[in-house]
Amino acid sequence: MFEVVKTEGRARRGVFTCAHGTVQTPVFMNVGTQGAIKGAVSAHDLKDVGCQIELSNTYHLHLRPGDGVVKEMGGLHKFMDWNGPILTDSGGFQVFSLSGLRKITEEGVTFASHIDGRRVFMGPEESMRIQSNLGSDIAMAFDECVANPSTREYVKPSCERTLRWLARCKEEHDRLNSLPDTVNPHQMLFGINQGGIYPDLRVWHMKETAKIDCDGYAIGGLAVGEPTQTMYDIIDAVEPHMPKDKPRYLMGVGTPSNIIEAVARGVDFFDCVMPARNARHGKLYTWEGTLNIKNEKYKTDPTPIDPTCTCPACQSFSRAYLRHLFAAGEMLAMRLAVLHNLHFYNELMVRIRAALDEGTFEEFRRTYSGKLDVPIGNS
């Protein structure tokens, strides 16, 4: 299922295998929340920009079109015509992002739907059933992602409850995989570490979480308000207690520099809405730093976004044209920009893996970690 084939310091070069294919790690998972990448990007486009794993959202697909509909259509792979690996998050992040619309109990979480206000209950068992209906390759355990900072008095019982929820997730997940009509009987389960910004709680929770046999383990609840260095410090505290033979996933992170620094700390899997979201607002990534394509200086610039890039946008169009599309409010602007940024992130992972293969990751880190997030001209 997962093999670490090479290391450099704590950085790991691995190979992950699941029901829908083999993945080279470290890997960035492209986020298709509702079965599509925002910006008019389809599953077919993901193949063109080098995506290895697609990530979709349990809560959103449960509300619309309904996980029962997706199961009836043969599962999420067939529904969105993507034949590669899929990870589904558990709905736990919505416990954080919809904090004004939910109530938490030991049984689970009651949401007021952000679409029509109807009451929706989701607990560990419900989350597992929804993800089983979707048929993803990796199901995430149901957890509570707390805001940072939160008081220790709140975080401690929260992460204790998340641990109890994981045990319930594991039992229900095993049951669902054994059923004859399960969409993907080889679906895997990843547990999630929580504990806010408190290193001792994080370490305790990771040790206890690792006692429950999961197929991989994630660090959740970061990049939600804490300083970047605090995030790195938490990874440093947790990583020694994560099983060495299982994949490690840092949820919702992050910038190119965040990814490079987390790889250096032993992380294998990443996801973030940032590349697509920034693209839709005109912020684009290049190997010289970021640029805002809406700036006046690009009005007559005939060069591609990044002259070294092989994405569909850079192969055919100029900065001037893309700037014009944004100014004109054309949907094509967002599509081309999103394709570029996703291609950049996937290419970033290709280069990280190559550096690990060649034993030059630390040199790569020194060259790019402080550069890729900085606007061109400011580095």
Strand content: 15-25%
The name CATH uses for the topology of the largest domain is TIM Barrel
Number of helices: 15
Give the overall silhouette: globular
The figure for the number of domains is 2
Structural class: alpha/beta
Give the beta-strand count. 16
Mean of residue pLDDT values:
96
Outline the low-pLDDT stretches.
none
Active site: 89, 271
Keywords: Glycosyltransferase, Metal-binding, Queuosine biosynthesis, Transferase, tRNA processing, Zinc
Cofactor: Zn(2+)
Subunit structure: Homodimer. Within each dimer, one monomer is responsible for RNA recognition and catalysis, while the other monomer binds to the replacement base PreQ1.
Structure description:
Keywords: Glycosyltransferase, Metal-binding, Queuosine biosynthesis, Transferase, tRNA processing, Zinc. It is an enzyme of class 2 (transferase). GO terms for molecular function: metal ion binding; tRNA-guanosine(34) queuine transglycosylase activity. With 379 residues, the protein is of the alpha/beta class. The chain folds into 2 domains: 2-271, Queuine tRNA-ribosyltransferase-like (TIM Barrel), CATH 3.20.20; 284-369, no CATH class. Helices cover 41% and strands 19% of the residues. It has 15 helices and 16 strands. It has helices at residues 43-48, 58-63, 67-72, 76-80, 92-97, 124-134, 152-177, 199-210, 228-238, 256-264, 274-280, 312-316, 319-328, 331-358, 361-368; strands at 2-8, 11-18, 21-25, 27-31, 54-57, 86-89, 102-104, 109-112, 119-122, 138-140, 188-193, 216-219, 248-250, 269-271, 283-286, 289-292. The strands form 4 sheets. The protein has an 8-stranded parallel beta barrel with strand order 4-5-6-10-11-12-13-14, surrounded by 4 helices. A 3-stranded antiparallel β-sheet has the order 1-2-3. It has a 3-stranded antiparallel β-sheet with strand order 7-8-9. It is globular and about 60 Å long. The chain starts with a strand and ends in an 11-residue tail after the last helix. The model has no long low-confidence stretch (mean pLDDT 96).
